[in-house]
Amino acid sequence: MTDTQTPKFPIEVCLTPALWHLYDASDSVVILTDIFRATTSMVAAFDNKVKSIIPVAEIAESLAYKEKGYIVAGEREGKKLDFAHFGNSPFNFMEPSLTGKTIVLNTTNGTQALNMVKGKNNLVAIGAFLNLVAVCNWAMAQNRPIIIFCAGWKGRFSLEDSLFAGAAAEYVLRMGKEKFFTNCDSSIACIDLWHTAKADPRAYIEKASHRHRLEKMGLDDVIDYCLQLNISSCIPVLKKEGIVNIAIRS
Amino acid sequence: MTDTQTPKFPIEVCLTPALWHLYDASDSVVILTDIFRATTSMVAAFDNKVKSIIPVAEIAESLAYKEKGYIVAGEREGKKLDFAHFGNSPFNFMEPSLTGKTIVLNTTNGTQALNMVKGKNNLVAIGAFLNLVAVCNWAMAQNRPIIIFCAGWKGRFSLEDSLFAGAAAEYVLRMGKEKFFTNCDSSIACIDLWHTAKADPRAYIEKASHRHRLEKMGLDDVIDYCLQLNISSCIPVLKKEGIVNIAIRS
Predict the structure, then answer these.
(1) A22-80: per-residue pLDDT in tens?
(2) What is the pLDDT of residue B1?
(3) Residue-wise pLDDT tens digits, B237-249
(4) How far is A142 from chain B, CA to nearest CA, in Å?
C-alpha cells in the first residue's frame, strides 16, 4: 500500500471518569489506564502468567468471591482491603504461586472505571507504560476509533494517567498516521505534557499529587517500576470471563 | 514583612464544568474563563464602560429580558440567538452606544458555567488573557483559596481555557508564593501547557478544536484579539445585580 489515505478513525482521551458520559464509545477500542497502580499491576500479573483477572467494583462482591475460594486482591485509597489476600502493588502480583490462577481485583479508581467503560460493542484493553507499544499496536489493528480512558483519582484529573494517554496518543498518531487522526483538545494537551516529561518521566512525576499520596502511605516503592516503558508484551483485554492476556492466545 | 511564611491558600484548576461537583468552592475566589469568547467579550464590554452584564443561562429568560427592553446578546454553538441584538463576538461589545448600558448575555458555555459557580460564600470573577494580571492581582488580595474554572466546550476540556488557567496559576504561584500553593495535578498540567505555548500562543492555538469550530463558522476573526495579554485592567466580578467592573469602584 503506497497510496496516501485520509485518516479515518479518531483517537480521543477521556481525562477522568467524571467526563466519560461525554464520549460515545460504541464500536471503539477503549484503553483504560491507572498507572499508580491498578493497570500496572494487571500487566505485572499477566507477565507472571496469571490466567485471568476479574475486576470488581463493590466490596461486598469481592468478599463473596473470597468466600467461594477465589484469590482476592484490593484496596481503597491505597490501603489493602482487610479481608483481601493482598493489596494493589504490582509486586504483589509477581508472586510465583499466582501463575495460572484467577485473581479478583477491586481498587479505588481502576476497577470502578472498568465497570463504567464496558459496553456492548466496544473492546476494552488495559494500558500501562509497561505495555504501551503492545496495547497500542493491538488497538490500532482493530480498525476502530480509540479512546484512552484515564482512571484519575476520585473523578479528578491525574498527571501520571494523562502522561500515559499522551504517550499512547502520540504513538498511535505517529505509527498509524494513515488511519488515525485527532481533533480532541485533551489528546493534544496530553501529547504536549508527554513531550515535556518524556526525557525524564521520573523527575516529572515528582510533581504529581498521587505520587505524594503514595509516599505518605509508604507505597511509593512502585513508582520506578510503574514508569518503565515497554518491558511487557502483554495485551490484557476484557472478556466475559474477566481480563485475559490475548497476546498469548494469538 | 521579611519572614518566610508557609503558603496558606491552595490554587486549583477545574478543567471543565463536568468536574465542578468535585470542588469545594465555599469561601473561595472562582475565576471563570471562556476565552473563545464569553469572558473575553465581557472584558471588552467593560473596557467599553458598560454598566453591568446580566448572565443568563436559559433562552426563555433572555427573551423575557428583551421584552422588558433590555439589550440582549447571545449565541448557541457560535450562532447568534435569532431574537438577540447581537451575538458573542468581543467586537460586538465595543459599540460606543453600549457605554453605560446593561447587557443581558447568554452563551453556550460561559454563562451556563457562571450559573454553576455562584454560591453563598464565594466570590466569582471573570478572567481572560486581556485582564489576566488585573484579575489575578485582585484574586490574590482576597486572601482565600483560588479556583480557576474553565468553561470548556459542552463539558469537555478546552485547550484555550486551559492555557489561560495555566498562565493564571503560574502568575499566582510566582507573584504570591508566600500565600499560595498547589497540590492539584490539573494546575500543574495547565502550567506546563502554558510554558509550551507562551512563546507563541497564536501558533499553539492553531491546534485547538474550538479554533477550527470558529473558523468553520467564519467567527475566527476574534482569535488574535482574544489572545492579547494584559491590555485591560478590568476586574469583572459577579454581584447580585449582575457582573460589574469593580476596578472602577475601588
Answers:
(1) 999 999 999 999 999 999 999 999 999 999 999 998 999 999 999 999 999 999 988 89
(2) 45
(3) 999 999 999 998 5
(4) 26
pTM of the model: 0.94
For cell 485582564, the residue is B131
Question: Quick check: A189 and B161 in contact, CB under 8 A?
Answer: no
Give residue B250's pLDDT: 46
CB B45 within 8 A of CB B97: no
pLDDT in tens, B58-78: 999 999 999 999 999 999 988
Rg, chain B, Cα only: 17
- Cα–Cα distance measured from residue B191 to residue B204, given in angstroms and rounded to the nearest whole number: 14
CB contact under 8 A, B18 and A21: yes
Asked if A157 lies within 8 A of B15 by C-beta distance, the reply is: yes
Q: State which amino acid sits at residue A82.
A: D
> Three-state SS string across B230-248, please?
CCCCCCEEEECCEEEEHHH
> Which of B42, B14, B36 lies closest to B135, judged by CA?
B42
Best B12, B20, B24, B157 member to test A by mutation, with max A CBs in 10 Å, is: B157
> Which residue of chain B has the CA closest to A16?
B19
Which helix (DSSP H) or strand (DSSP E) does residue A94 occupy? Answer: none
Q: Residue A103: its pLDDT value, please?
A: 97
* Helix H or strand E encompassing A193: helix A185-197
B15 interaction partners in chain A (CB closer than 8 Å): 15, 157
Q: Do A210 and B185 touch (CB under 8 A)?
A: yes
What per-residue string of b and e applies to A65-74 under the rule 16 or more CB within 10 Å gives b?
bbeeebbbbb
Average pLDDT, chain B: 93
Interface of B with A in 158-187 (CB under 8 A): 158-159, 162, 183-186
Query: Can you give the pLDDT at residue A4?
Result: 58
Contact between A115 and A125 (Cβ < 8 Å): no
Taking CA–CA distances from B196, the nearest residue in chain A reads A192
Query: CA A108 to CA B34: how far, in whole Å?
Result: 33
pLDDT recorded at residue A250: 46
Task: Give the SS3 label for residue A150.
Answer: strand
User: d(Cα B207, Cα A169) in Å, to the nearest integer?
Assistant: 15
The number of helix segments (H) and strand segments (E) in chain B equals: 9, 11
Contacts of A209 in chain B (CB under 8 A): 183-185
| ipTM for this model | 0.93
C-alpha cell at B115: 450559573
